[in-house]
Write a structure and sequence with these properties.
This protein has 2 domains: about 210 residues, 3-Layer(aba) Sandwich (Rossmann fold); about 190 residues, 3-Layer(aba) Sandwich (Rossmann fold). The chain is α/β, with parallel strands linked by helices. Helices cover about 40% and strands about 10% of the residues. The chain has 15 helices and 13 strands. The strands form 2 sheets. An 8-stranded mixed beta sheet has the order 3-2-1-4-5-6-7-8, sandwiched between helices.
Protein backbone atom coordinates (compact mmCIF):
# COMPACT_ATOMS: atom_id res chain seq x y z
CA UNK A 1 0.00 0.00 0.00
CA UNK A 2 2.70 2.47 1.00
CA UNK A 3 4.84 2.00 -2.10
CA UNK A 4 1.85 2.34 -4.40
CA UNK A 5 0.82 5.56 -2.66
CA UNK A 6 4.37 6.95 -2.78
CA UNK A 7 4.57 6.24 -6.51
CA UNK A 8 1.28 8.05 -7.19
CA UNK A 9 2.41 11.04 -5.16
CA UNK A 10 5.75 11.02 -6.95
CA UNK A 11 4.35 10.94 -10.49
CA UNK A 12 1.45 13.27 -9.59
CA UNK A 13 -1.21 10.77 -10.56
CA UNK A 14 -2.54 10.97 -6.97
CA UNK A 15 -5.79 12.85 -6.42
CA UNK A 16 -5.41 15.34 -3.60
CA UNK A 17 -8.41 15.82 -1.31
CA UNK A 18 -8.57 18.99 0.78
CA UNK A 19 -11.31 19.31 3.40
CA UNK A 20 -12.06 22.88 4.42
CA UNK A 21 -11.70 25.47 1.67
CA UNK A 22 -10.81 28.57 3.67
CA UNK A 23 -7.73 30.61 4.48
CA UNK A 24 -5.60 27.44 4.79
CA UNK A 25 -7.22 25.02 2.36
CA UNK A 26 -7.54 27.33 -0.65
CA UNK A 27 -3.86 28.37 -0.93
CA UNK A 28 -2.89 24.72 -0.53
CA UNK A 29 -5.35 23.72 -3.25
CA UNK A 30 -3.90 26.32 -5.62
CA UNK A 31 -0.36 25.10 -4.97
CA UNK A 32 -1.21 21.44 -5.63
CA UNK A 33 -3.08 22.41 -8.78
CA UNK A 34 -0.28 24.52 -10.21
CA UNK A 35 2.27 21.70 -9.97
CA UNK A 36 -0.02 19.25 -11.79
CA UNK A 37 -2.11 17.36 -9.23
CA UNK A 38 -5.86 16.97 -9.61
CA UNK A 39 -7.49 18.40 -6.50
CA UNK A 40 -10.92 17.64 -5.10
CA UNK A 41 -12.03 20.12 -2.45
CA UNK A 42 -14.63 19.50 0.27
CA UNK A 43 -16.61 21.97 2.36
CA UNK A 44 -20.02 22.02 4.09
CA UNK A 45 -20.78 25.60 2.97
CA UNK A 46 -22.70 25.30 -0.31
CA UNK A 47 -22.32 29.03 -1.07
CA UNK A 48 -18.51 28.69 -1.00
CA UNK A 49 -18.69 25.59 -3.19
CA UNK A 50 -20.87 27.37 -5.74
CA UNK A 51 -18.51 30.32 -5.96
CA UNK A 52 -15.40 28.19 -6.28
CA UNK A 53 -16.95 26.02 -8.98
CA UNK A 54 -17.63 29.23 -10.93
CA UNK A 55 -13.95 30.14 -10.60
CA UNK A 56 -14.64 32.89 -8.09
CA UNK A 57 -12.78 33.60 -4.85
CA UNK A 58 -14.52 34.78 -1.68
CA UNK A 59 -11.27 35.77 0.11
CA UNK A 60 -9.71 39.09 -0.84
CA UNK A 61 -6.03 38.10 -0.98
CA UNK A 62 -6.78 34.95 -3.00
CA UNK A 63 -7.53 35.97 -6.58
CA UNK A 64 -10.38 34.63 -8.69
CA UNK A 65 -7.78 34.31 -11.45
CA UNK A 66 -5.93 31.69 -9.38
CA UNK A 67 -9.17 29.85 -8.62
CA UNK A 68 -10.06 29.91 -12.32
CA UNK A 69 -6.67 28.52 -13.34
CA UNK A 70 -7.06 25.73 -10.79
CA UNK A 71 -10.46 24.87 -12.28
CA UNK A 72 -8.89 24.67 -15.73
CA UNK A 73 -6.37 22.22 -14.29
CA UNK A 74 -9.15 20.01 -12.93
CA UNK A 75 -9.98 21.40 -9.50
CA UNK A 76 -13.51 20.69 -8.35
CA UNK A 77 -15.31 21.55 -5.11
CA UNK A 78 -18.09 19.51 -3.52
CA UNK A 79 -20.16 18.99 -0.39
CA UNK A 80 -20.46 15.26 -1.16
CA UNK A 81 -18.21 13.45 1.31
CA UNK A 82 -18.82 10.08 -0.35
CA UNK A 83 -16.27 11.27 -2.90
CA UNK A 84 -13.55 10.89 -0.25
CA UNK A 85 -13.18 7.42 -1.76
CA UNK A 86 -11.86 9.04 -4.96
CA UNK A 87 -8.87 10.77 -3.35
CA UNK A 88 -5.45 9.49 -2.34
CA UNK A 89 -4.85 12.12 0.32
CA UNK A 90 -7.23 13.67 2.83
CA UNK A 91 -5.86 16.97 4.14
CA UNK A 92 -8.01 18.38 6.96
CA UNK A 93 -8.00 22.19 7.15
CA UNK A 94 -10.94 22.95 9.44
CA UNK A 95 -11.28 25.41 12.36
CA UNK A 96 -10.31 24.59 15.95
CA UNK A 97 -11.90 27.36 18.07
CA UNK A 98 -12.36 27.62 21.83
CA UNK A 99 -15.71 27.20 23.55
CA UNK A 100 -17.12 29.79 25.98
CA UNK A 101 -15.06 28.25 28.80
CA UNK A 102 -11.82 28.75 26.78
CA UNK A 103 -11.52 25.01 26.29
CA UNK A 104 -10.66 23.33 22.96
CA UNK A 105 -13.60 22.82 20.62
CA UNK A 106 -12.65 19.89 18.39
CA UNK A 107 -16.16 19.50 16.97
CA UNK A 108 -15.16 20.61 13.46
CA UNK A 109 -12.20 18.21 13.35
CA UNK A 110 -14.11 15.27 14.81
CA UNK A 111 -17.30 15.77 12.79
CA UNK A 112 -15.28 16.15 9.60
CA UNK A 113 -13.30 13.01 10.38
CA UNK A 114 -16.51 11.09 11.09
CA UNK A 115 -17.92 12.28 7.76
CA UNK A 116 -14.83 10.97 5.96
CA UNK A 117 -14.41 7.64 7.80
CA UNK A 118 -17.13 5.64 5.98
CA UNK A 119 -15.43 6.38 2.66
CA UNK A 120 -11.79 5.94 3.65
CA UNK A 121 -9.96 3.11 1.92
CA UNK A 122 -6.59 1.43 1.80
CA UNK A 123 -3.76 3.44 0.26
CA UNK A 124 -4.76 6.88 1.52
CA UNK A 125 -2.77 9.35 3.61
CA UNK A 126 -4.66 11.53 6.10
CA UNK A 127 -3.05 14.77 7.27
CA UNK A 128 -4.48 17.00 9.98
CA UNK A 129 -3.37 20.65 9.58
CA UNK A 130 -5.71 22.27 12.13
CA UNK A 131 -3.93 23.63 15.20
CA UNK A 132 -4.61 21.54 18.28
CA UNK A 133 -3.14 20.18 21.51
CA UNK A 134 -0.42 17.49 21.57
CA UNK A 135 -2.04 14.07 21.39
CA UNK A 136 -5.09 14.96 19.29
CA UNK A 137 -4.01 13.00 16.21
CA UNK A 138 -3.30 9.83 18.18
CA UNK A 139 -6.06 10.12 20.77
CA UNK A 140 -8.91 11.33 18.55
CA UNK A 141 -8.19 10.66 14.87
CA UNK A 142 -6.37 7.33 15.13
CA UNK A 143 -9.22 5.31 16.71
CA UNK A 144 -11.75 6.80 14.30
CA UNK A 145 -9.63 6.03 11.25
CA UNK A 146 -9.11 2.44 12.40
CA UNK A 147 -12.65 1.65 13.51
CA UNK A 148 -13.62 0.14 10.13
CA UNK A 149 -10.70 -2.27 10.12
CA UNK A 150 -8.01 -0.19 8.41
CA UNK A 151 -4.60 -0.42 10.10
CA UNK A 152 -2.75 2.88 10.38
CA UNK A 153 0.84 2.50 9.20
CA UNK A 154 -0.01 -0.48 7.00
CA UNK A 155 -3.30 0.11 5.13
CA UNK A 156 -3.68 3.84 5.63
CA UNK A 157 -1.28 6.56 6.80
CA UNK A 158 -1.85 9.25 9.43
CA UNK A 159 0.19 12.43 9.88
CA UNK A 160 0.00 15.82 11.52
CA UNK A 161 1.39 18.80 9.60
CA UNK A 162 0.46 22.22 11.03
CA UNK A 163 -0.60 25.01 8.69
CA UNK A 164 1.62 28.07 8.58
CA UNK A 165 -0.40 30.45 6.44
CA UNK A 166 0.03 34.19 7.01
CA UNK A 167 -2.69 36.04 5.05
CA UNK A 168 -1.46 39.19 3.36
CA UNK A 169 2.26 38.40 3.82
CA UNK A 170 3.93 39.22 0.50
CA UNK A 171 7.32 37.76 1.50
CA UNK A 172 6.28 34.13 1.93
CA UNK A 173 3.99 31.79 0.01
CA UNK A 174 2.59 28.32 0.62
CA UNK A 175 5.50 26.95 -1.38
CA UNK A 176 8.28 28.79 0.46
CA UNK A 177 7.13 28.34 4.08
CA UNK A 178 8.83 25.19 5.47
CA UNK A 179 6.37 22.40 6.35
CA UNK A 180 6.70 20.49 9.62
CA UNK A 181 5.39 16.91 9.45
CA UNK A 182 5.07 14.16 12.04
CA UNK A 183 3.74 10.65 11.44
CA UNK A 184 2.12 8.06 13.69
CA UNK A 185 4.61 5.47 12.37
CA UNK A 186 7.71 5.60 10.16
CA UNK A 187 5.58 4.53 7.19
CA UNK A 188 3.14 7.32 7.97
CA UNK A 189 5.93 9.87 8.14
CA UNK A 190 7.33 8.69 4.82
CA UNK A 191 3.91 9.10 3.21
CA UNK A 192 3.44 12.54 4.78
CA UNK A 193 6.81 13.81 3.61
CA UNK A 194 6.09 12.55 0.09
CA UNK A 195 2.65 14.22 0.18
CA UNK A 196 4.18 17.64 0.79
CA UNK A 197 7.65 17.58 -0.74
CA UNK A 198 6.29 17.92 -4.29
CA UNK A 199 4.66 21.27 -3.46
CA UNK A 200 6.70 22.73 -0.57
CA UNK A 201 10.34 23.76 -0.93
CA UNK A 202 11.37 22.35 2.45
CA UNK A 203 9.65 19.65 4.51
CA UNK A 204 10.81 19.30 8.13
CA UNK A 205 10.18 15.80 9.51
CA UNK A 206 9.82 15.38 13.27
CA UNK A 207 9.68 12.27 15.44
CA UNK A 208 5.92 12.10 16.12
CA UNK A 209 2.55 13.71 15.59
CA UNK A 210 2.80 15.03 19.16
CA UNK A 211 6.07 16.81 18.40
CA UNK A 212 4.51 18.38 15.30
CA UNK A 213 1.44 19.48 17.29
CA UNK A 214 3.65 21.00 19.99
CA UNK A 215 5.76 22.79 17.37
CA UNK A 216 2.77 24.73 16.10
CA UNK A 217 1.72 25.69 19.61
CA UNK A 218 5.23 26.87 20.49
CA UNK A 219 5.30 29.13 17.43
CA UNK A 220 2.07 30.87 18.39
CA UNK A 221 2.69 30.90 22.15
CA UNK A 222 6.04 32.58 21.46
CA UNK A 223 4.21 35.35 19.63
CA UNK A 224 1.36 35.63 22.16
CA UNK A 225 3.74 35.94 25.12
CA UNK A 226 5.94 38.54 23.43
CA UNK A 227 2.96 40.58 22.27
CA UNK A 228 1.62 40.41 25.82
CA UNK A 229 4.99 41.70 27.06
CA UNK A 230 5.03 44.74 24.75
CA UNK A 231 1.36 45.44 25.49
CA UNK A 232 2.19 45.54 29.20
CA UNK A 233 5.25 47.71 28.55
CA UNK A 234 3.05 50.04 26.48
CA UNK A 235 0.96 50.75 29.58
CA UNK A 236 4.07 51.39 31.69
CA UNK A 237 5.65 53.60 29.02
CA UNK A 238 2.45 55.60 28.65
CA UNK A 239 2.44 56.36 32.39
CA UNK A 240 6.05 57.57 32.02
CA UNK A 241 5.22 59.66 28.95
CA UNK A 242 7.47 57.50 26.74
CA UNK A 243 6.53 56.46 23.20
CA UNK A 244 6.78 52.64 23.27
CA UNK A 245 6.96 52.50 19.48
CA UNK A 246 10.06 54.71 19.49
CA UNK A 247 11.62 52.44 22.11
CA UNK A 248 10.85 49.27 20.13
CA UNK A 249 12.29 50.77 16.93
CA UNK A 250 15.44 51.76 18.79
CA UNK A 251 15.80 48.32 20.41
CA UNK A 252 15.33 46.67 17.01
CA UNK A 253 18.61 48.20 15.82
CA UNK A 254 20.41 45.66 18.00
CA UNK A 255 21.58 43.02 15.49
CA UNK A 256 21.27 40.07 17.88
CA UNK A 257 19.16 38.84 20.79
CA UNK A 258 16.08 41.00 20.14
CA UNK A 259 12.96 40.46 18.05
CA UNK A 260 10.62 43.42 17.58
CA UNK A 261 6.96 42.85 18.45
CA UNK A 262 4.44 45.66 18.16
CA UNK A 263 1.70 46.44 20.70
CA UNK A 264 -1.88 47.09 19.64
CA UNK A 265 -5.54 47.04 20.72
CA UNK A 266 -5.34 43.29 21.40
CA UNK A 267 -4.55 40.24 19.32
CA UNK A 268 -6.56 38.66 16.55
CA UNK A 269 -6.64 36.00 13.89
CA UNK A 270 -7.44 32.35 14.28
CA UNK A 271 -4.08 31.43 15.85
CA UNK A 272 -2.59 33.70 18.50
CA UNK A 273 -5.71 34.42 20.63
CA UNK A 274 -6.74 30.75 20.62
CA UNK A 275 -3.89 28.28 20.18
CA UNK A 276 -2.02 28.94 23.47
CA UNK A 277 -5.09 27.85 25.42
CA UNK A 278 -5.01 24.45 23.73
CA UNK A 279 -1.76 23.77 25.55
CA UNK A 280 -2.98 25.40 28.77
CA UNK A 281 -5.97 23.03 28.76
CA UNK A 282 -3.91 19.92 27.97
CA UNK A 283 -1.21 20.82 30.52
CA UNK A 284 -3.77 20.55 33.33
CA UNK A 285 -4.02 16.84 32.56
CA UNK A 286 -0.36 16.62 33.61
CA UNK A 287 -0.76 18.83 36.69
CA UNK A 288 1.06 21.79 35.10
CA UNK A 289 -0.04 25.41 35.46
CA UNK A 290 1.09 27.38 32.39
CA UNK A 291 1.53 30.76 34.06
CA UNK A 292 3.29 32.62 31.24
CA UNK A 293 0.64 31.64 28.71
CA UNK A 294 -2.26 32.56 30.94
CA UNK A 295 -0.74 35.89 31.99
CA UNK A 296 -0.08 36.84 28.35
CA UNK A 297 -3.65 35.90 27.50
CA UNK A 298 -4.95 38.03 30.36
CA UNK A 299 -2.93 41.07 29.24
CA UNK A 300 -3.77 40.72 25.55
CA UNK A 301 -7.48 40.13 26.11
CA UNK A 302 -7.56 43.21 28.35
CA UNK A 303 -6.29 45.56 25.64
CA UNK A 304 -9.73 46.50 24.20
CA UNK A 305 -10.78 47.61 27.71
CA UNK A 306 -7.57 49.62 28.06
CA UNK A 307 -8.22 51.36 24.74
CA UNK A 308 -11.81 52.09 25.75
CA UNK A 309 -10.63 53.74 28.97
CA UNK A 310 -8.25 55.93 26.97
CA UNK A 311 -11.12 56.89 24.66
CA UNK A 312 -13.33 57.70 27.65
CA UNK A 313 -10.60 59.81 29.28
CA UNK A 314 -10.00 61.74 26.06
CA UNK A 315 -13.70 62.38 25.51
CA UNK A 316 -14.15 63.55 29.11
CA UNK A 317 -11.32 66.05 28.63
CA UNK A 318 -13.33 67.37 25.69
CA UNK A 319 -16.51 67.44 27.79
CA UNK A 320 -18.11 64.59 25.84
CA UNK A 321 -19.38 61.34 27.36
CA UNK A 322 -19.00 57.93 25.72
CA UNK A 323 -22.77 57.53 25.90
CA UNK A 324 -24.22 59.19 22.85
CA UNK A 325 -20.84 60.00 21.31
CA UNK A 326 -20.17 59.24 17.64
CA UNK A 327 -17.09 57.04 17.28
CA UNK A 328 -15.46 55.93 14.04
CA UNK A 329 -13.31 52.77 14.19
CA UNK A 330 -10.66 52.61 11.47
CA UNK A 331 -9.92 49.03 10.45
CA UNK A 332 -11.91 46.03 11.66
CA UNK A 333 -9.78 43.24 10.13
CA UNK A 334 -7.48 41.69 12.71
CA UNK A 335 -4.33 42.90 10.93
CA UNK A 336 -3.36 45.30 8.17
CA UNK A 337 -4.14 44.82 4.47
CA UNK A 338 -6.41 41.75 4.75
CA UNK A 339 -10.15 41.15 5.04
CA UNK A 340 -9.78 38.49 7.75
CA UNK A 341 -11.84 39.41 10.83
CA UNK A 342 -11.38 36.29 12.92
CA UNK A 343 -11.02 37.24 16.61
CA UNK A 344 -10.39 40.86 15.64
CA UNK A 345 -9.75 43.07 18.70
CA UNK A 346 -11.41 45.93 16.79
CA UNK A 347 -14.74 44.11 17.01
CA UNK A 348 -14.38 43.46 20.74
CA UNK A 349 -13.66 47.18 21.20
CA UNK A 350 -16.70 48.12 19.09
CA UNK A 351 -18.90 45.93 21.29
CA UNK A 352 -17.57 47.47 24.48
CA UNK A 353 -18.15 51.00 23.16
CA UNK A 354 -21.65 50.05 21.99
CA UNK A 355 -22.44 48.55 25.40
CA UNK A 356 -21.49 51.91 26.94
CA UNK A 357 -23.89 53.80 24.68
CA UNK A 358 -21.58 55.02 21.92
CA UNK A 359 -22.88 55.28 18.35
CA UNK A 360 -20.43 53.15 16.37
CA UNK A 361 -19.37 53.39 12.74
CA UNK A 362 -16.37 51.87 10.99
CA UNK A 363 -14.25 52.33 7.90
CA UNK A 364 -12.28 49.49 6.36
CA UNK A 365 -11.28 49.34 2.68
CA UNK A 366 -11.04 45.55 2.89
CA UNK A 367 -14.42 44.94 4.58
CA UNK A 368 -17.16 46.91 2.78
CA UNK A 369 -19.99 45.33 4.80
CA UNK A 370 -19.79 43.95 8.33
CA UNK A 371 -20.05 40.18 7.76
CA UNK A 372 -22.13 37.60 9.54
CA UNK A 373 -20.05 36.26 12.43
CA UNK A 374 -20.75 33.49 14.93
CA UNK A 375 -20.43 35.69 18.02
CA UNK A 376 -20.60 39.30 16.82
CA UNK A 377 -23.33 41.31 15.12
CA UNK A 378 -23.32 44.82 13.67
CA UNK A 379 -25.63 46.07 10.93
CA UNK A 380 -23.02 48.37 9.42
CA UNK A 381 -21.24 49.21 6.17
CA UNK A 382 -17.87 50.87 5.77
CA UNK A 383 -17.94 54.68 5.93
CA UNK A 384 -16.17 56.60 3.17
CA UNK A 385 -13.31 58.68 4.55
CA UNK A 386 -14.11 62.19 3.36
CA UNK A 387 -13.19 65.38 5.23
CA UNK A 388 -16.86 65.93 6.12
CA UNK A 389 -17.39 62.36 7.35
CA UNK A 390 -14.24 62.33 9.47
CA UNK A 391 -15.05 65.70 11.03
CA UNK A 392 -18.56 64.55 11.97
CA UNK A 393 -17.26 62.10 14.62
CA UNK A 394 -16.45 62.94 18.21
CA UNK A 395 -13.65 60.38 18.15
CA UNK A 396 -11.73 58.47 15.50
CA UNK A 397 -9.93 55.30 16.66
CA UNK A 398 -7.21 53.69 14.56
CA UNK A 399 -7.31 49.98 15.38
CA UNK A 400 -5.91 48.40 12.17
CA UNK A 401 -3.30 50.34 10.21
CA UNK A 402 -4.23 49.48 6.61
CA UNK A 403 -1.92 50.89 3.95
CA UNK A 404 -4.93 52.22 1.99
CA UNK A 405 -5.86 54.76 4.66
CA UNK A 406 -4.95 58.40 3.94
CA UNK A 407 -3.38 59.20 7.31
CA UNK A 408 -2.79 62.85 6.50
CA UNK A 409 -6.49 63.29 5.71
CA UNK A 410 -7.48 61.46 8.89
CA UNK A 411 -5.21 63.56 11.11
CA UNK A 412 -6.23 66.85 9.51
CA UNK A 413 -9.98 66.40 9.89
CA UNK A 414 -10.32 64.38 13.12
CA UNK A 415 -11.55 66.25 16.19
CA UNK A 416 -9.98 63.65 18.49
CA UNK A 417 -7.82 60.73 17.36
CA UNK A 418 -6.90 57.61 19.34
CA UNK A 419 -3.93 55.74 17.83
CA UNK A 420 -3.51 52.12 18.96
CA UNK A 421 -0.84 51.28 16.36
CA UNK A 422 1.76 54.02 16.72
CA UNK A 423 1.06 55.26 13.21
CA UNK A 424 0.92 58.97 14.00
CA UNK A 425 4.31 60.31 15.08
CA UNK A 426 3.20 63.94 15.30
CA UNK A 427 2.90 65.75 18.61
CA UNK A 428 -0.67 67.00 18.69
CA UNK A 429 -3.24 67.80 21.35
CA UNK A 430 -5.83 65.92 19.31
CA UNK A 431 -3.89 62.59 19.41
CA UNK A 432 -3.92 60.08 22.26
CA UNK A 433 -1.85 56.90 21.96
CA UNK A 434 -3.47 53.79 23.39
Amino acid sequence: MKNELLKKLEDKSAVIGIVGLGYVGLPLMIRYSEVGYKVLGFDIDQSKIDKLNKGESYIEHISSNDIGKSKERGFEATTDFSRIAEVDSIILCVPTPLNKYREPDLSYVLETTEACVPYMRKGQVISLESTTYPGTTEEELLPRVEKNGLKVGKDIFLVYSPEREDPGNQNFTTRTIPKVCGGHTENCLEAGVKLYEGVIDKVVPVSSTRAAEMTKLLENIHRAVNIGLVNELKIVADKMDIDIHEVIDAAATKPFGFVAYKPGPGIGGHCIPIDPFYLTWKAREYGVHTRFIELAGEINSGMPSYVMKKIGKGLNERQVTIKGSKILVLGIAYKKNVDDMRESPSVFLMEKLRDHGAVISYSDPHVPVFPKMREHSFDLSSVELTPENIASFDCVVLTTDHSKFDYGLILKHSKFLVDTRGKFKEKSDKIIRA
